[in-house]
């Protein structure tokens, strides 16, 4: 009798990037978090701007666009 065993491996990829940005003379820190689960072809992404009250809504959108372009 022969028994063959297969081992299933699930690999997750998590990345947390830190950006120090100068937006119109205002320095802010932003983080971009990405999580990938290739088994289920599932991706999550989120970003956070520290001290975002320093920025206008338009500047916040520009920061988000900059971060998301790097994906």
Structural class: alpha+beta
Mean pLDDT: 84
Q: Can you count the beta strands?
A: 3
Strand content: over 45%
**Order of neighbouring strands in the sheet with most strands:** 1-2-3
Put simply, the count of helices is 1
pLDDT < 50 runs, ≥5 residues: none
Rg value: 19 Å
The run of helices and strands is EEEH
Coarse morphology:
rod-shaped
Task: Give the domain tally.
Answer: 1
Q: Span from first to last CA?
A: 50 Å
The major sheet is characterized as:
3 strands, antiparallel
Helix content percent band:
10-25%
Short description:
18% of the residues lie in helices and 45% in strands. It is an alpha+beta fold. The chain has one domain (13-69).
List the helices and strands and how they pair.
Elements: E1 13-23, E2 26-37, E3 42-50, H1 57-69
Antiparallel strand pairs: 1-2, 2-3
Question: What does it look like?
Answer:
The protein has 71 residues and is an alpha+beta fold. The chain has one domain. The chain has one helix and three strands, in the order βββα. It has a three-stranded antiparallel β-sheet, covered by helices on one side. The model has no long low-confidence stretch (mean pLDDT 84).
Quickly list its features.
single chain; 71 residues; alpha+beta; three-stranded antiparallel sheet; 1 helix
């Amino acid at each position: 009798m022969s028994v063959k065993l297969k081992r299933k491996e699930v690999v997750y990829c998590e990345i947390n990037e830190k950006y120090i940005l100068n937006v119109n003379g205002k320095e802010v820190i932003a983080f971009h978090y990405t999580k990938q689960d290739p088994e289920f072809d599932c991706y999550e992404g989120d970003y956070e701007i520290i001290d975002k009250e320093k920025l206008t809504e338009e500047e916040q959108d520009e920061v988000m666009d900059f971060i998301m372009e790097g994906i």
